[in-house]
Specification:
230 residues; mainly alpha; Triger factor/SurA peptide-binding fold; 3-stranded antiparallel β-sheet; 7 helices; globular; peptidyl-prolyl cis-trans isomerase activity; transmembrane helix; signal
Length: 230
């Protein structure tokens, strides 16, 4: 079964969409990652939140979201409107426009799955609304990034919201031990003390990833999401 890129972090800054990519199988090999968080340029395909995605996980995903309420064929929804997220509309024109600006890897993944791509736009809209609610636009770093990318204000707000969530995550010694136990069969003859510092950034990124996924799921359960099923 095809699984969605859970939306949350691929801020391709010249575009308007974000994904979170993670391993399909937690037993996949683990590699060091870059923990640096920054706003990406227009050619970046990857994550922008404190090492949220491992280097080898550009296509697989972690969306285990609780299904939100679906209202079929709501009254007064015209054919060009694909979904309404609270009071924000997502139109077919908007979806096609964003899809056409996506990197080829994303286009290939979603070429036969426009409903799946729509779900990513729905998630983006939820994150954008939350960023506005938290007044991310008042932050100094938002203003600094906006000076460099004046036409990307929504992307910057969403990215800074996700960074805020990721930066709120801390890693305890027990968390690190749990992570080691999860992957120790891939580290033959390696005791915990000898590898724990190598594993620390990877354990942190996994915890950040799960925190963001949990945050998105909560937004979905609280929102009124209407889909046009015509």
């Amino acid at each position: 079964m095809k699984r969605y890129y859970p939306f949350a972090i691929i801020l391709v800054i010249a575009l308007v969409i974000i994904f979170i990519a993670v391993p399909k199988n937690k037993k996949e090999s683990i590699n060091p990652v870059n923990e640096k968080t920054e706003i990406s340029d227009s050619n970046t395909f990857g994550t922008e939140v404190a090492g949220i995605v491992s280097n080898q996980t550009s296509v697989e995903t972690i969306v285990q979201a609780k299904q939100q309420e679906i209202i079929d064929d709501p009254p007064k929804m015209t054919d060009d409107v694909l979904a309404i997220v609270d009071d924000a509309k997502i139109t077919k024109e908007e979806l096609d426009s964003i899809f056409n600006t996506m990197p080829s890897q994303i286009k290939e993944y979603y070429k036969d799955d426009k409903p799946g791509f729509l779900e990513e736009l729905i998630t983006r809209q939820l994150l954008l609304s939350e960023a506005k609610r938290q007044k991310i636009y008042n932050q100094e770093d938002y203003k600094d990034y906006l000076k460099q990318n004046p036409d990307k204000k929504e992307d910057i707000m969403v990215n800074l919201l996700l960074r805020k969530i990721a930066n709120s995550v801390t890693l305890s010694e027990n968390d690190l031990k749990d992570f080691y136990n999860q992957y120790k069969d891939q580290l033959p003859n390696k005791d915990y003390e000898s590898v724990k510092e190598r594993l620390r950034p990877m354990a942190l990124e996994e915890k950040q990833r799960l925190k963001i996924d949990e945050f998105i799921n909560k937004l979905k359960t609280k929102a009124k999401i209407v889909r046009n099923k015509k």
